[in-house]
Design a protein that fits this description.
Order of helices and strands: HHHHEEHEEEEEEEE
Shape: globular
Length: 245
């Protein structure tokens, strides 16, 4: 997976997300890029971020089919000090139902819910969509930064309807879209989409500013990304580690 530097056992939620997962060709490209992490992450700043991620969000290394310095992505058991989890969900595979059964803990406020659904409407989510929407929300107590994710899914025969958005809302209520997946149908067994999990908020490079840590899922490819604020604008400063199958 491409590393950009300008920047466990996984929780059961991934049983659900694994069903929601980039085109096979894109996945093959990602595999090739992940093998070059060491060469691409050559600056001191990038290595500092990478070391922090490996220390806090990595399990077995290497994992799957590589890369050699990659790892199994591990979700933290509890958030960083000063970070509140306002909403979260867990999914477990139900053998009898042959489906994931998910439980939502916490809900977005009315204003955050409106923001998330407005963004998903812009991404094509029908007003009468019959599936379920689940939420991940983290807030930095010190900075007031709030990151909220919503993922809609609905099984229709052999297809999966999917739509996702992750937004950042700063202390002045300015909204920035960090990641988005337009509403679409994809094969439920070999999904041709990339989805994201909000893992944590943390200062990964020691600059005193909160960064956003995401896990990317692209079918059989899984990797970490870090989004940082630069002059108030979010930028992806790291993309790498992880594993592929």
């Amino acid at each position: 997976m491409l590393v950009i530097c300008t920047n466990a056992s996984a929780r059961t939620k991934r049983v659900f997300i694994a069903v929601l997962l980039t085109l096979f060709a894109a996945g093959a490209y990602a595999n090739a890029q992940m093998q070059n992490d060491s060469d691409l992450c050559s600056t001191a700043a990038c290595q500092k971020i990478k070391s922090y991620l490996k220390a806090h969000y990595c399990g077995d290394s290497p994992a799957g089919n590589g890369p050699g310095d990659g790892c199994e992505i591990r979700f933290p058991k509890k958030p960083q000090k000063g970070v509140e989890v306002l909403a979260d969900y867990n999914c477990e595979w139900n053998a009898a139902k042959q489906d994931s059964v998910c439980k939502q803990a916490g809900q977005p406020s009315a204003s955050v819910r409106t923001i998330l659904f407005n963004e998903m409407r812009r991404l094509g989510l029908p007003a009468d969509a019959g599936g379920e929407t689940r939420f991940d929300i983290r807030k930095s107590v010190v900075s007031g930064l709030l990151v909220a994710g919503a993922v809609y899914s609905h099984t229709v025969g052999d297809d999966l309807e999917i739509c996702e958005v992750i937004v950042m809302i700063d202390k002045d209520s300015h909204v920035s879209v960090l990641r988005k997946l337009p509403f679409q149908k994809t094969d439920i067994d070999v999904p041709k989409v990339t989805t994201w999990n909000l893992i944590d908020l943390a200062d990964v490079d020691g600059d005193g500013q909160i960064d956003i840590i995401l896990e990317d899922d692209a079918y059989e490819d899984h990797w970490l990304e870090v989004v940082s604020l630069h002059n108030g604008s979010p930028q992806t400063v790291f993309s790498g580690l992880g594993y592929y199958l």
